[in-house]
Amino acid sequence: MVHAQQHEHDESFMRMALAEAQVAAAAGEVPIGAVVVHEPIDRGTRRSLAEPRVVARAHNLRETLRNPAAHAEHLAMEAAARELDAWRLTDCTVYVTLEPCIMCAGLMHQARISRCVYGAPDQKAGALGTLYQVHADERLNHRFEVTSGVLADESTALLQAFFRSRR
Ligand SMILES: [Zn+2]
């Protein structure tokens, strides 16, 4: 994918993730949303073999499911694996409105994703650049690309409005 086109794609998929975050807020969940996009790449030429396709979308369901692992991107990756019928999410990009935590960054490593694009950084738990660099740790057997700050203001505004309304 050429650069300008990549940027455009990133914003449109992040808008989908933001829409998921809004669904979470409406259900009383902290508004975080995620989308997994699959785009098969030819290993030799690095050329795209098909149009990028959304294989999963999810939002935070920690309260609803009473499950500490029910983070948006965690649920989205599990759904993507079911959809692709494989545990390996090679050639997948995970879009998430807030920087992933250690658990989700760990699952991205385990799933061998290609790339993660996130919105707002998380000063208290961020594991892809803020507190940890799980995607770039040379000791691990898989590394992946990270793009941060895509529609970060929209993501932050959603989170702030949610916490303000709860006070
Ligand atoms: Zn997480």
Task: Explain how this protein is built.
The chain has a five-stranded mixed beta sheet with strand order 2-1-3-4-5. The protein is an alpha/beta fold and 167 residues long. Helix 4 links the parallel strand 3 and strand 4 (115-120). It has helices spanning 3-26, 62-65, 72-84, 102-111, 152-166, and strands at residues 33-38, 53-59, 92-98, 115-120, 145-147. Helix 1 packs parallel to helix 5. The mean pLDDT is 96. The structure holds zinc ion.
Number of helices: 5
Please identify the oligomeric state.
Answer: single chain
How do the helices and strands follow one another from N- to C-terminus? HEEHHEHEEH
Spans where pLDDT lies below 50 across 5 or more residues: none
Sheet with most strands: 5 strands, mixed
What percentage of the residues does DSSP assign to strands (E)? 15-25%
N- and C-termini, Cα separation: 44 Å
Enumerate the strands of the largest sheet in spatial order, edge to edge or round the barrel. 2-1-3-4-5
| Content-based structural category | alpha/beta
- Form type: globular
Gyration radius (Cα, Å) is 15 Å
Indicate the mean pLDDT.
96
How many strands in all?
Answer: 5
Compounds present? zinc ion
Helix percent band: 25-40%
